[in-house]
Design brief:
single chain, 15 strands, UDP-galactose 4-epimerase, domain 1, alpha/beta, binds nicotinamide-adenine-dinucleotide, 4-stranded mixed beta sheet, Rossmann fold, 7-stranded parallel beta sheet, 2 domains
């Protein structure tokens, strides 16, 4: 029996793969390497399949049978909010189309367990600053919408076939479990600041008049290793009797402001940083923090790492990446 991880060659997926292998599971990765890298999966078999392609259903069904797959962790997706606003149809084709193909293959082969990478982006700009899973999802961009539609598709598949599924709504993921598995893209605050430091530029702060303690945006940063661990807990719980929920927030329940993060990066790196405040972005919530009590109660999962460990590990990974010779 093995676990199929889609997107296992990506930033988060590679951490999930490594923890699964470490827990003694057989793993097979499906990834089209559009943003992932083959060297992140080690010795684990890697099948190069584009989930959104016409051939995907057949290719996936074959992979599931060949590798005796009994559970899927579906992480593969396109994840850039701005790009999703410029190319909405393509985002739906990638993320929703990819999920549709995967679910057809899952139904055809009779796989009964699936864990899905959802996102706090499904909440949009909620009234509450600390959100629990009962807050009505209202995504404000196509990326967030594709994640919410993915959750609906799973619910429908579950009703139709008995598929047992869990959607994990990740908050702001950062850090690295191993230096070689750091996030290579400058798409979240931590790696964006690193990128600007490398180019000799000041970190940007989008608005300092939000209704927060220091006026800058507050988010819930979760260590990628803790997040990866939540997938193992979610997989185990799919076999537990009397499951009550199919959706869980994954966060720490603790908010950090943009200035907190920049200050911490300056301390860890030893580089003085003078942030430059520019106009706030439309649609950016002042504060978005997870109520993470449901996942603690049901799955026994809690974040073990705080902001200091997130930034120290991310910095070590960034140093390692920039010192590697380019090929
Ligand atoms: N990074 C975050 O802060 C964050 C927050 C919330 C949710 N998520 C979700 O977590 C997941 C992983 O994010 P990540 O940060 O590791 O991104 P990533 O880009 O590093 O990983 C995505 C992986 O999926 C693969 N992929 C993309 N489209 C594919 C397709 N059509 N077919 C096959 N493989 C495909 C990519 O090659 C890559 O390896 C995504 O679903 C994302 O929406 C991430």
């Amino acid at each position: 029996m093995s676990v199929l991880v889609t997107g296992g060659a990506g930033y988060i997926g590679a951490h999930v793969v490594r923890l699964l292998v470490g827990s003694g599971r057989e793993v097979v990765v499906v990834d089209d390497l559009s943003t992932g890298a083959a060297d992140r999966v080690g010795d684990v078999p890697l099948l190069r399949i584009d989930l959104a392609s016409d051939e995907a259903i057949g290719d996936l069904a074959r992979a599931i049978r060949t590798h005796d797959v009994d559970a899927v962790v579906h992480i593969a997706a396109k994840k850039q909010v701005g790009e999703s606003m410029q190319r909405p149809a393509w985002y739906y084709r990638q993320n929703v189309g990819g999920m549709a193909n995967l679910l057809e293959a899952v139904q055809e082969t009779g796989v009964e367990r699936l864990v899905f990478s959802s996102s706090a982006a499904v909440y949009g700009v909620p009234d509450a600053t600390v959100v629990d899973e009962s807050v009505e999802p209202a995504p404000i961009n196509p990326y967030g919408a594709t994640k919410l539609v993915g959750e609906w598709m799973l619910a429908d598949a579950g009703r139709a076939t008995g598929l047992r599924h869990t959607s994990l709504r990740y908050f702001n993921v950062a850090g690295a479990g191993w230096p070689e598995l750091g996030d290579p893209e400058a798409l979240n605050l931590v790696t964006i600041v690193f990128d600007r430091m490398a180019r000799g530029l000041r970190p940007l702060v989008y608005g300092d008049t939000h209704a927060t303690a220091d006026g800058t945006g507050v988010r819930d940063y979760v260590h990628v290793l803790d997040l990866a661990d939540a997938h193992l807990a979610a997989l185990d719980q799919l076999d537990a009797p009397g499951r009550r929920h199919a959706v869980y927030n994954v966060g720490t329940g603790i908010g950090a402001s943009v200035l907190d993060v920049i200050r911490r990066i300056s301390e860890v790196s030893g580089v003085p940083l003078e942030p430059e405040v520019i106009a706030a972005r439309a649609g950016d919530p002042a504060e978005l923090v997870a109520d993470a009590s449901r996942i603690a109660d049901d799955l026994g999962w809690r974040a073990r790492h705080g902001l200091d460990e997130i930034i120290a590990s991310a910095w070590a990974a960034d140093r390692a990446r920039r010192s590697r010779p380019h090929d």
